[in-house]
Amino acid sequence: MAEPEVHIIDDGPSEEATAADVEMGGAEAAEAENGDDAEDKGEDGGAAEEEEEEEEKEEITPPSQVFIDYLKSPIVELLVGEGDQQTILNSHQALLMKSPYFKEACEAFGENPTSRRIPLSTEQLDAVGCFLQYMYTGEYFPRRLSGDKGLEHDPTLPASDETGEHLLKHARVYTLADKLGIIELKSLAMSKIHLIHSTAKGEIAYARYVYANTSPDDASIRKPVARFWSLRSHVLRHEAEEEFRKMCLEFPQFGFDVLSLVLDAREKGKGEREHPERLGSARKRARQG
Q1: 204 and 251 in contact (C-beta within 8 Å)?
Q2: Which of 22, 53, 164, 226 has a C-alpha 20 to 30 A away from that of 142?
Q3: pTM value?
């Protein structure tokens, strides 16, 4: 028996098959794109993680390692004073260069200097010593007692501050820190000045030093001096009347500053007596501010 003839008609892929192919192709392409994105993100994420790890490593670098780097730097000689009174103090260059003043001086040495010396002919030895102690330790003697109860006992100073040496010690540190550009040391010295109880003559010696060695616009140290005498001059000037008179004649700005504060206080007191209602409103505004 003859086999039946089979006729195959090729009409091309059906619409359903084509749609299925399109859907599958789109899914595969999307998966491929997602895979590429994931790889890109993986690479970017890995780089970001590495950067974060490096930053963390930098943050957890032991402070002692940084300090050791200071100690590895060259030694610089500081020539303090002049003539027979000159003294040589040694310090590491990297620590000194934290001061803008010393940084400029050290950069002037060049690459291979035969000597590293910086003259400080007009500076006081004790003040420079306090500066170096602060640069190495973050403090200088005498340190503040806990609770702002005063300062440690300094056996090198007299028990009673008749000459103002207690105040002058920290005033010299303040002016040296100002010259060297160490702002934190200035603040530390000022905080210690406020903890010292001196005598009338000691306060005059301190005021004379401040007005002779600070800038006229340095209100952070000059204004407290003027305010102190504006509040106590009527009492303390009898204990050091001659010194007070000489101070006013030698530094007219001191006398003007004290007088201005006295007159301001009297004017304020007179206004409060004549208009007591203003006092309450002013306090209320201050509290709200």
Answers
A1: no
A2: 226
A3: 0.71
Question: What pLDDT score does 105 carry?
Answer: 96
What per-residue confidence (pLDDT) applies to 65?
58
Cα(127)–Cα(139) distance, rounded to whole angstroms?
Answer: 13
Paired tokens of 156: 């090198």
- 284, with CB counted inside 10 A (0-12, 13-18, 19+), is exposed
User: Rounded to whole angstroms, how far apart are CA atoms 127 and 112?
Assistant: 30
Q: Order the strands of the 87-92 sheet from edge to edge.
A: 87-92, 75-80, 117-120
Contact 187, 194 (CB under 8 A): no
Q: Which helix (H) or strand (E) holds 50?
A: helix 15-59
Give dist(CA 261, CA 284) in Å, integer: 24
pLDDT averages per 10-residue partition of the chain, 289 residues: 46 48 48 52 56 59 74 96 96 97 95 92 97 97 89 92 95 98 98 94 96 96 95 82 93 96 87 54 35
pLDDT, residue 43, reads: 53
Provide Rg for the chain, Cα atoms.
Answer: 38
Residue 144 DSSP symbol: B
| Kind of pairing between the strands at 117-120 and 75-80 | parallel
Classify 221 in phi/psi space as left (phi over 0), alpha (psi -120 to 50) or beta.
alpha
Please name the helix (run of DSSP H) or strand (run of DSSP E) that holds residue 92, with its range, or none: strand 87-92
Q: Is the peptide bond before 216 cis (omega within 30 degrees of 0)?
A: no
d(CA 226, CA 262): 10
CA-to-CA distance for 140 and 128, rounded, in angstroms? 11
